[in-house]
Design brief:
The chain has one domain: 2-Layer Sandwich (Macrophage Migration Inhibitory Factor), CATH 3.30.429.10. The protein starts with a strand and ends with a strand. It is an alpha/beta fold.
Length: 127
Amino acid sequence: MPIIEIRTLPFSKSFDIPEILKRLNAEAASAMNIEERHVWSYWEFIEAHQYAVGSQTSECLTVDTHSPVVKVIAFEGKSTEAAEKLLETIARVLAEELEIDIANIFVYYQTVSSGNVFDGGQIVRKK
């Protein structure tokens, strides 16, 4: 696990979201030194003008405002360095794929603790 949740405004040009998600999962798995099957990701679109930055809304994703908002949900126990490497990897991949400035990517890391996850038919606990 991690689960990568991406939210953006619609695009002004076409991007292959399934391919971006596959690349993102592969590079996230590599950054965390885990199998790709343990990385999940999905993309949700925010309706035009339903995302405000200050007093400004936008119809679509722009290169310098209305950042993609990315939440990473991960099980406890990863080092600060591992979490930072994952955050940087996600930001880099999205910046490259969406052709926007990496400074316009917002990614945050949320940890879930032992006993607060159900997966594989059971409650997951720290080993």
